[in-house]
Amino acid sequence: MVLDAEEGVEVVGEAADGLAAVELAARGCIDVLLMDVRMPGLDGIGATERITATGPLPRVLVLTTFDLDEHAYAALRAGASGFLLKDARPAELVAAIRAVHAGDAALAPTVTRRMLERFSAPPPARDDAALGALTPREREFLVAVAEGLTNDELAARFALSESTVKTHVGRLLRKLDARDRVQLVILAYELGLVGR
Prior knowledge:
Rossmann fold, Arc Repressor Mutant, subunit A, 2 domains, 4-stranded parallel beta sheet, 10 helices, 4 strands, 51% helix, 9% strand
């Protein structure tokens, strides 16, 4: 009801379980899919992984009653573009849907805080072929993205136009086979480029 009342948002389908969600996503008429973590049959993490493996759309925003770090991290690793708790206010839910639709990420504030705490400890450096594929400038961009800089802030830091920034971010996404900025941040931490 909340989404149906929102201008510019159209609910095009519902699924009772993970397999039905995968089938619904395969129809190709969905931009953003709200996914529950716990569902009968195939759970929301497994369904998210299957859906995101097929292409850039739909983007998945995972909703759950359970405020558990392992669910949030698993959802993001599976390719979700966001993770919210079901107690989010309607305005927060709509804002998250719009952000995910625009290609940004959306995380519940409590999840964001705990992920920052988790990643503030130095990660073990990993030798990864992906890192070797990046130019020094692309590494700088990856670090800046992992620091949470917006496109405007990236443009200011690197003295570039916003369209050039988008080109650099897009190149990072392709080279690192990342779905969105959330995955770039995770990869930067796993590669030991930030958080030391």
